[in-house]
Each structure stands twice: as structure tokens, then as C-alpha cells.
TrEMBL record:
Pfam families: adh_short_C2. InterPro entries: NAD(P)-bd_dom_sf, Sc_DH/Rdtase_CS, SDR_fam. SUPFAM superfamilies: NAD(P)-binding Rossmann-fold domains. Coiled coil: none annotated. This is Short-chain dehydrogenase. CDD domains: SDR_c (cd05233). It comes from the Bacteria. Belongs to the short-chain dehydrogenases/reductases (SDR) family. Signal peptide: none annotated.
């Protein structure tokens, strides 16, 4: 039990990567606050969790006071708070032409500002427990796909925040802040997104080796397995680090010519 008796908030955990992380945390001995926007899906996650090991909060993370309410729920229900996983995010296609300022601000608000607000709200409790933060970024933070402009900008900003707080907070209080950058993951949202772009329902079964040398893309459970290391005590004093989770190097790799 690598997370025995720990209390962890996982935002955006009604589906996808967040759900996989929440379930894996419980399997490793933690209690979790499940958070998201879909009441039915959130209740389904809670029903998969051992009794008294999970509590659900359905609310838009950018609502005024939402971070404070998540922290309050964790402490009221379980008595403390050991870790925060900032996973909730908007993943919407956009480029320079289709991105107006209102859209960019909204994406930044969800993907970058809200994680900071939750860290700030949780900090007194994390400091008391010698806790940690795990930000869920994206390999797009390094440059970004052409049609993921706003999303990529927000994840780049999140990565810089991780580097900064991972140094300053650890020096001041022992609170570690790290980040994992998943690559292409087969989540429910990604399946729907590709379907909306006109791809066939089983598009993920036939992906070029340029993008998937393994013959498939990543599974949420694989990201969750990696997340546990950063939430567990075994990661020791490591802080301010960003780790890419993809099946090929993002930097310095040129796609083979057809």
C-alpha cells in the first residue's frame, strides 16, 4: 500500500486519466475526493471505490470558492489533506484564427489559473502533512499540435508554474510539486473528440507507427501507475520536475519520411 492513509484530491476524476488516478490511489490505500462536472459519472466512480474511501464534489473548478470547497470537503470528511492532483482541463481544438481572447482566457483559467488556486487553498494543509502536488500536463506543453494552440499554451504555463513552485514551496515548507506530461492517451474524451473530427469509431485500432511505435496509444491506467510514484513517499525529496510519458522522444525526433 504505497499511499496508505493518505488523503488526495483528484480534479477532473469522473472520467479518463483523472478517474484512473483516483481508482489507483484508493487501490494503494488512499482516500480520495473525486471531482468533476458529470454527476452520474462521478457517482459511478464512487460506486467503484471501497466504502468510506471516496467522496464526490460536482462543480466547475473555476467557480468562485470552488478550490476552497474542495479542500474543506477533504478535511471535513477525512481529517487532513496529503496531496492534490491537478488533472481537470479543457481540451479543445483551436489555432490562431479560431482563438479569440475570451476563449484563450477561459482555457487558461481552467488549465492554469484553477490549479494554482487549488494549490494555494490546499497549501496550509499540505505543509502540515509534508504533502505534495502532482500537476497533469501534456507533451503539447513543449510546442503543441497546430490545432491545439490555446491548450498547448496553458500546459506550457502549467509546466513553468510547476518548476517555480516545486522549488520555492519545497524550500519553504517541504511541499513537493511535480508534473507528468502524458502523450496521446485513449480516454473517453479523446475517443469522442476524434469522432467529432470525422474519424471512424475504431480509429484508435489503426494508428501509424509514426505516432504509435507500440501499435497503440497510451491507456489511462498507465498514466495512473506513473502518478503513484510522485504521490508516494518513495519519491523522497524530488520536486520541481516534469516527466514526459510518451512512447517516443518529443524533442529531437524527426518523423520518418513516407
Amino acid at each position: 500500500m504505497r499511499l496508505n492513509n493518505k488523503v488526495i484530491i483528484v480534479t477532473g476524476s469522473c472520467t479518463g486519466i483523472g478517474k484512473a488516478i483516483a481508482l489507483r490511489c484508493v487501490a494503494e490505500g488512499a482516500s480520495v475526493v473525486v471531482h468533476g462536472l458529470e454527476q452520474d459519472l462521478g457517482e459511478a466512480v464512487i460506486n467503484e471505490i471501497e466504502k468510506d474511501k471516496g467522496v464526490l464534489q460536482i462543480e466547475e473548478i473555476t467557480n468562485e470558492g470552488a478550490p476552497e470547497r474542495l479542500v474543506e470537503l477533504a478535511v471535513k470528511t477525512f481529517g487532513k489533506l496529503d496531496a492534490v492532483v491537478n488533472n481537470a482541463a479543457m481540451i479543445l481544438s483551436s489555432n490562431m484564427e479560431t482563438t479569440d481572447l475570451a476563449f484563450l482566457r477561459k482555457v487558461l483559467d481552467v488549465n492554469t489559473v484553477a490549479p494554482f488556486a487549488l494549490i494555494k487553498a490546499a497549501f496550509p494543509y499540505l505543509a502540515k502533512e509534508g504533502g505534495c502536488v502532482l500537476n497533469i500536463g501534456s507533451v503539447n506543453a513543449w510546442s503543441g499540435e497546430p490545432n491545439l494552440f490555446a491548450y498547448s499554451v496553458s500546459k506550457g504555463a502549467l509546466m513553468t508554474m510547476t518548476r517555480n513552485l516545486g522549488d520555492t514551496l519545497f524550500r519553504e515548507s517541504g511541499v513537493r510539486v511535480n508534473q507528468i506530461n502524458p502523450g496521446w492517451v485513449l480516454t473517453e474524451t479523446e475517443i469522442q473528440r476524434k469522432r467529432s473530427q470525422g474519424l471512424k469509431d475504431d480509429w484508435y485500432k489503426d494508428i501509424s507507427s509514426v505516432y504509435a511505435p507500440a501499435g497503440r496509444i497510451l491507456w489511462p491506467s498507465e498514466i495512473a501507475a506513473a502518478a503513484i510514484y510522485w504521490l508516494a513517499n518513495e519519491s523522497g525529496p524530488i520536486s520541481g520536475q516534469v516527466v514526459d510519458l510518451e512512447q517516443y522522444p518529443l524533442i529531437g525526433r524527426n518523423p520518418p519520411k513516407n
